[in-house]
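[scheduler] slot 2 assigned
[scheduler] job type: sequence-to-structure, two independent chains
[scheduler] chain ordering preserved from manifest
[runner] begin chain α
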Amino acid sequence: MTAKVLLLDEAIAELEEASVWYEAQRAGLGHAFLAAVDRTIDHVSRWPFTGALVDGVDSSLEVRRMPVGSFPYYLAYTSAEQSITVLAVAHDRRRPRYWAGRGS
């Protein structure tokens, strides 16, 4: 069964910012990034527990992370019975867990 996926406003802003940056680097790269994020969202909506648990956040949230294809980004998300909430579209090497207060 596929879970419904909701992106927080902050995650949408991060997604847009990253795709614009990639598109400025090379034509079509922003679209490739968006496609990779779509595939990642599809994956977590089908298999929400395959993402690795994230240490250092409120344990009651059970935040997971899933890499975004070949890009240095990941989705930070929580899962409930029928839904997934994407807390962040975060860069792997910038500001670790800056998004940890979201969704609580």
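[runner] end chain α
[runner] begin chain β
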Amino acid sequence: MYTEQVMEHFTNPRNVGEIENADGVGEVGNAKCGDIMKIFLKIENGIITDVKFKTYGCASAIATSSIATEMIKGQPIDKAIELSNKAVVEALGGLPPHKIHCSVLAEQAIKAALRDYYTKQGIDPVPILGEPCHDCHDCEGCH
């Protein structure tokens, strides 16, 4: 059912926790399944120098949070903005179809944290990130 990569990131998640005085914090939830993801970013000179997450949810939710944070840590903000749920799924070697929404939540949590970062910088995030997703009861339909 789950790939080896999913099980590895579920049983040994990377970047768990929170960052005090984070430069950006984003939280998203999915009413359909009850998963909640919160991402904390530390950004210096346009580079994500640290990222942590707190996730309440299933194995897929924890694994997607873990791999997504690994994928953006040390990367420029522009690269993090481009992270897609499809890239998260590929990095995990796949997810069961009914768990794809977890990868969407990981993507949206990162974008929510970046929205918070831009807002704190006095920059309107909408031209950069687009409008936030408000349809989290069926995120599979967003992508």
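[runner] end chain β
[qc] chain β: The first helix runs from residue 4 to 11.
[scheduler] slot 2 released
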